[in-house]
Amino acid sequence: MFDRDRWVEIFETIRKNKLRTVLSGFTVALGIFIFVILYGLGNGLKNTFQQFFLDDAENVLFVRPGRTSIPYKGYKSGRRIEFVNSDISDIEGQFRYFIEYMTPRIFSSVRATYETESENYSNISVGPDHQYIEKTVMMYGRYINEQDLVTREKYAVIGRLVALDLFGQLDVVGHYIDLNGFAYRVIGVFQDSGGDNVERTIYTPYTTQQLLNKSTDKISMFAVTFRKELGHRGSIIFENKLRQYLKEKKVISPRDPRGVWINNLADSLKRNQQFAGALQTIVSVVGIGTLIAGIIGISNIMVFVVKERTKELGIRKAIGASPRSVITMVLQESILITTFSGYAGLFLGILMLSSVGERLDEYFITNPYINLNTAIFATIVLVVCGGIAGYIPAKRAASIKPIVALRDE
Length: 409
What we know:
The longest helix has 44 residues. Helix 2 packs antiparallel against helix 10. This protein has 409 residues and is α+β, with helices and mostly antiparallel strands. The chain is 55% helix and 19% strand. A six-stranded mixed barrel has the order 3-4-9-6-8-7. Strands 2-10 form a two-stranded antiparallel sheet. It is elongated.
């Protein structure tokens, strides 16, 4: 039942003891504020790791040739390993169950020219599956297809920023650009969440590039995605089998760590998520420690408050106040202060996280945030603990006989 007189008395007590109230509230607000900030920064760090890896499909393996470091079967160490087109078809046949998409990659630099505009760009010669592996989004036109590979067309799919640099507009499908002295027709313009460097890239059919490279069939590397239902463990099995197969095919020692390089993005993503999660756990523990410090602080203050009011509580009991009413009064005051201060700290913490925005990107913290349910739960815990902090000394004081309380100095 709402007791107006009691609440008037509580507010009057708070008004008369401003410093004590401010100190109590500041301890609570600071605890929840620091918890929200630390937890939010932990989430921001985790976002950075995910953003770094999720530009590409998560289930992708990037396979690069290297140089052998161990002599094997008559071959000396230091032999340069090369991948060719037949490696792609052989792997597709050998690992049909594992593979979802696969594409060769040939890297080069080109001088792109259109009329009076000219600029240097990265050129990656690829197959059609590259669009799905890189999560490329077409803005205009289309991507490279299988027919382009067969006919070795001089087609180019250019990034959004390439179109703006050379043409000053985006809808440039059908125009021709000069790439290192060869005329290529623009068949599409793409955008990519990977950033400006990716959007200043030009994709061409890999068979066309091989034709221009004196009809070679060599490729720089290849990317392959495995079926997602295989999961992380399946990706490790696939990676090991693929490495073993390539070493046997290229006559590389099974113990040679440098002949073939495989970057399993799923494994890297999991490891970095675990690392980010560990950091977030550490940050959360520090935040929880701050909450505990706040709880201890409010507990000490409430012990002092009750001790200070022992004589007052004795007078109340002497004129007929029940122990329950004494406890309730102290408890309501404690809960009022912790609730108001806790949610003030919560609001300020969320406001601070929202205001920093992109300012922490250089510190590898992206979009720091805290789940509202988590923040509210932490605040409720602090409020409950604040109530307990007031209840324990109040119960002890309420159990003291009035005559003893009146003698308290």
